[in-house]
Amino acid sequence: MSNSKRSTFRLSLALGILGAALAGCGSGGTPDGLPELHPLTLSVNQGGAPIEGVSVQMIPENPSNSRWACGGATDATGKVIVKTLGRFEGAPAGNYKVTFFKTFVEDMNPGVAADDPSSSKVYNSYLLIDPKFGSTETTPIEVNVAGGETTVPPIELGPAVKIKQANM
Fold this sequence. Notes:
The protein has one helix at residues 3-25; strands at residues 37-38, 41-46, 49-50, 55-60, 70-73, 79-81, 83-84, 88-89, 91-92, 94-101, 103-106, 124-127, 142-145, 155-156, 163-164. By secondary structure, it is of the alpha+beta class. It has one domain: Immunoglobulins (Immunoglobulin-like, Sandwich), CATH 2.60.40. A hairpin with a 2-residue loop joins β2 (41-46) and β3 (49-50).
């Protein structure tokens, strides 16, 4: 998958999660058809140490679960409490491929957005996780969520990387 297609997929996934989360915000209850959710906390390491700020997405193998986007972001201890639709703790039962994504934008000026058309500065963006973990086709990480609380050994993302992306 090209970087452009991967970026479009991630943007579509993020917008879908946001839209689904916002759609459920006004009702105060759970969305119709939400399956039973099972608690899941993942620990993510890079180079043997916890890594903060990693976007974690769980992609279900069962198409009937694709409506219930699951994931989250790691905290300072490398842990992520998985939520469905960004709001409900836990994930539906099933098998998932798990993807991981983290970038760093160098030389960002506070108060100036990278997508500000009036800005003439070029920003360098770097991928901080091995790209194999960013795609369902290449990630080696799979999780089976079953009834009750699922225990998953700590996930190791390999050594730290800093891969330059296309300029913004």
